[in-house]
Amino acid sequence: MVQFQRQFDITLETAFQILHKLRAGTVRLNRDRIGSNLSRGEHVEVDETYIGGVGRGEGSGPKDQTLVAAAFEVRQQPAKKGDKPMQLGGLYAGRLRLEIVPNRGAKVLCGFVEQAVAPGARVITDAWSEYNSLGARGYEHRPVMESGNPEVAEEFPPNVHLVFSDLKAWLQGTRHGRVSPKHLQTYLNEFTFRFNLRFYPFNAAFDSLLGIGTNDEVASTEELDDLPSPAEQLEVTFDKLAAMEEKYLHAKPEEKERLSRYVERGPIGALVKQATGFRCQLCEALGLDPVGFLKKNGEPYVEAHHAMPVSKKEVGSLTASNVMTLCANHHRQMHYGGIDVVMTATTFDFVIGRKPVKIPRFGVATSTIASSKTSLS
């Protein structure tokens, strides 16, 4: 926070308030539940821990600790022919959910699981009896009896224990271990955001944060009484803008050269645009005007979006069944709005603006494309 305050030449109080609001915006209210992909051997580890509890002058031992529940997704990396055996059998850390809970009762803990974990998922917990109703709630529940045995605790569930250890070390380094219950959830949200986007470059993570905000799905900040007013935020923004304007008022643009690489997307996108009649399939699904502005040649402007990113260079990403046509606004929203797309055999399924949407996929088979052509004519 001190570094942020120095870079932007603002007070510590304003820096704290800005960072706090950014933390409040790291959670999408309609985020999907984890642990749904059982076909690849995924499972979810669930456990609880106590955070904080620094009590001065109140006797020995920590006081006023906050109970935090975690759901941690363990994914399975498929083995490739000819590769060496993978460590831990190809298991690696997936997504994380953290939430403050009031107690360790069945209603609270199982309610947390229902909010965070997809129905039908394989859920591994310790043998705490309050988790026993998970099976009746539609989960494949596998309790593990640790009984103080460190070898069992190391085997099941080790990943969520590592997350708790990293979380406490991070809080110790960021807040010296002193986080009030009032603000702890925002720090949990930040840790979760950083953890879930750890494989992405910084600019992609920041774009995702901006996308959550522009998608009008940020967590409410009405209960945070220490946030700056819009006038205070604008004052900081306009001061910086005025300084930048003065710097570049008489400056000329510089010409620079750079070498770059790109991933070839092939001609399939252009063909899908023609097949859909240059219409935004998402606008069409939402009942909006699917035709954008006309280009100079009279052709409606539309963009091709690859549900499976071509940048990952995976087999199948260049097929017509991986492409949907979108207007410029919806295309940006798909990239930066934190939209999770599920690809079924015939549709792209996702939630946007709290509304479930299904967009038909073009099939690889000629018959499927032909039937799509008939429906569009």
Tell me what you see in this structure:
- The protein is α+β, with helices and mostly antiparallel strands.
- Among the domains are: 31-56 and 63-77 and 89-179, Nucleotidyltransferase, domain 5, CATH 3.30.420; 268-376, no CATH class.
- It is built from twelve helices and ten strands.
- The protein has helices at residues 2-8, 12-24, 106-116, 150-155, 158-175, 181-196, 202-214, 230-248, 268-275, 281-285, 328-336, 366-376; strands spanning 43-51, 66-76, 91-100, 122-126, 140-144, 303-306, 323-326, 342-343, 347-352, 355-360.
- It has a five-stranded mixed sheet with strand order 3-2-1-4-5, sandwiched between helices.
- Strand 8 and strand 9 form a beta hairpin.
- The N and C termini lie far apart (58 Å).
**What would you say the CATH architecture of one domain is?**
2-Layer Sandwich
Specify the CATH class of one domain: Alpha Beta
Q: Give the count of helical stretches.
A: 12
Basic shape:
globular
Write down the CATH topology of one domain.
Nucleotidyltransferase, domain 5
Helix content: 25-40%
**Which structural class is indicated by helix and strand composition?**
alpha+beta
Would you identify the regions where 5 or more consecutive residues have pLDDT less than 50?
216-230, 364-377
* Distance linking N and C termini: 58 Å
- Strand content bin: 15-25%
Order of helices and strands: HHEEEHEEHHHHHHHEEHEEEH
Biggest sheet strand order reads 3-2-1-4-5
State Rg: 25 Å
Question: What do the pLDDT scores average to?
Answer: 77
